[in-house]
Amino acid sequence: MKRAVFPGSFDPVTNGHLDIIKRSLPLFDEVIVAVLNNPEKQHMFSADERCEIIREIAADQGLGDGRLSIESFSGLTADFAIKKSAAAIVRGIRAVQDYEYELRMALMNRRLAPGIETVFVMAAEEYSFVSSSLLKQVFSLGGDVSGLVPDKVKARMLAKLSR
Ligand code: ADP
Prior knowledge:
Layout: E1 3-8, H1 15-24, E2 30-36, H2 47-60, E3 68-73, H3 77-83, E4 88-93, H4 96-112, E5 117-122, H5 132-140, H6 151-162
Parallel strand pairs: 1-2, 1-4, 2-3, 4-5
The protein binds adenosine-5'-diphosphate (ADP).
The site of adenosine-5'-diphosphate has 17 residues, from helix 1 and strand 4.
């Protein structure tokens, strides 16, 4: 049973994240999307909301066939991956800028959790410029984010902004 953990902030989940989830599912028996709950960081959505959004979208898109689960966690990704007996930590690589940070992170995680490999999955070209932070920035200034997030996520963002 090969289980992978895909950790991140997912604030909110984008089509880029979903692309990585879809590419990861055929590689593992089970994929856990691990939503980091970091109270020190300013988030648009709470960890519970972020999980709920991903669950809803995953159900809408029929992802995983029962092999995909979504959980929030706090603390070290390595500790969460060990607790879940994961074989791998999945991370997405968009462009060369991601590589330097991700390499350091992967080596640190290998030190903290020997035996758990970080597996990098390349983003689809059409989403390689998409990040949750850029998306929020553009959205808050009135820019159109259609096609970069599922419509339901856009609606959630709109509701959040108008509050
Ligand atoms: P973190 O704060 O841990 O980077 P993110 O939610 O920003 O959390 O990203 C989680 C993971 O998803 C990271 O591995 C990141 O590289 C990947 N990712 C983010 N956006 C995209 C995208 N557009 N395409 C592919 N992978 C992405």
